[in-house]
Amino acid sequence: MSPDPQTSLATAATAATAATTNTIAAKAATPSTLGLDALFNNPVFAGGIGLAGLGAAAAFGRRALISGASLLRRQMLVNVEISKRDPSYPWVLQWLAQPREETGFIAKRLTRMRKLAVSTTTRSINPGGPAGEGRIHADFRVQPGYGRHIIRHKPGVYIAVNREKASTTNTSTGEPHETLTLTLLWPHRHVLGEVFTEAHALATSFQEGKTVVYCARRMEWQPLGKPRLKRKLASVILGEGVKERIVGDVKEFLAAQQWYTDRGVPYRRGYLLYGPPGTGKTSFIQALAGELDYSVAMVNLSEVGITDDLLAQLLTQLPEKSLLLLEDVDAAFQNRRQRDSDGYTGNTVTFSGLLNALDGLAAGEDRIAFLTTNHIDRLDPALIRPGRVDMMMRIGEATRYQAAEMWRRYYGDIDKDGRGCKRFLESLEELGLFGQSKDPNVPARHTSTAAIQGLFQFNKGDMEGAINMAEGLIPREFGPELPSGAMKSPA
């Protein structure tokens, strides 16, 4: 009997399935060359692969998050870095130290400074009270310390402050370099203008009525001590018409900057004040700075370390609105006349360096320079030629006019009728202190305004004492001192 066709098909399908199963089983039974199947079938290895994948994904996500945050910070924030060498650094610190009222629980917690620094200033006050009381007044100012702070400038505007101290130091002062970084949101960037304006106005208010004196410290200008109270121009008594002539010339120069620019002339002016010591040269320059609301920048030309290059750099980087003061300028010429055997004069200013700094290719502009000397005969004509020195003025010994003006300034409220002044002037004339004497037995001599001022200060409110002690104004000559233990025998 022939087989059923359907049965034959079922048998064939079953055989094919069995053959396929046997083939797969055979392949599964055959081990792979690298043994990867066993590794992948190991649950520990498979779990490790999964964890590694998760770690890689987390690291990539973290990196992407940091990059995104950095990009967002660059796009949304603005940073301003201020170096300690910048003039605005102390201004901004003073501004940050101002008290601010915070409203709201969150604002108080955000803006609470936990790292502070103290800046202390002292000043002498009028000791008119009981002895030992109120001699020195100390002013303590609290400033943000090193670290990060947040302040609230105005409603909705916050400023992040980061004050850092670098590991490097200033070679001239030994102080570490510092930076102050202010961070704001980009939409609030216009607030920076307000910050610097307010900080400058605050610093100016602290110096109101004062004169700042700068001195050269290596490569930069530094304030010399605390700002000094402005000295009134009327307190300096010079010869008749001398003060008015200098002040008028300086003010005319300040008003003529455009005139200099239009004609291509360097905008600078130099003055030489010469005369004996104690006649008021430096005092007048200080009073003039107060009258003009200027500061004073002084350089000691005989200081070791002030070289030609350094002097030229300092004179081109003068503080704004300052009078340059070169005292005892004749001291700079010792290098020109006294040299060592090898021709080297030391690490100080040379004559040619001084000339180039005042009026050469290295000379700066927008400058008013005052030179003083007690020995004009020691100055080279090349130094005092026009262009370097535009006006020379002798500040000489005390005249009758100066003595009378000083008397009125000290005793004007006591000597109402002027009789005391007349007696004092007659006493000075009898002593020959105005350069001439009616008595042939009295030599003609001079005294200085500093000596007269010292006499008046010694006799405060006592004009009779000043008249009686007028003889003390006679210049004294001092001989050589005796050796220690020597006996002085009578003449």
Automatic annotation (TrEMBL):
One of its GO terms (cellular component) is mitochondrial inner membrane. Signal peptide: none annotated. One of its GO terms (molecular function) is ATP hydrolysis activity. It is found in: Mitochondrion inner membrane. Residues 267-399 form the AAA+ ATPase domain. It is a single-pass membrane protein. It comes from the Eukaryota. Keywords: ATP-binding, Hydrolase, Membrane, Mitochondrion, Mitochondrion inner membrane, Nucleotide-binding, Transmembrane, Transmembrane helix. It catalyses: ATP + H2O = ADP + phosphate + H(+). GO terms for biological process: mitochondrial respiratory chain complex III assembly. The keyword Protein transport does not apply. Gene3D superfamilies: P-loop containing nucleotide triphosphate hydrolases (3.40.50.300). Belongs to the AAA ATPase family. BCS1 subfamily. PANTHER family: BCS1 AAA-TYPE ATPASE. This is BCS1 N terminal-domain-containing protein. It comes from Immersiella caudata.
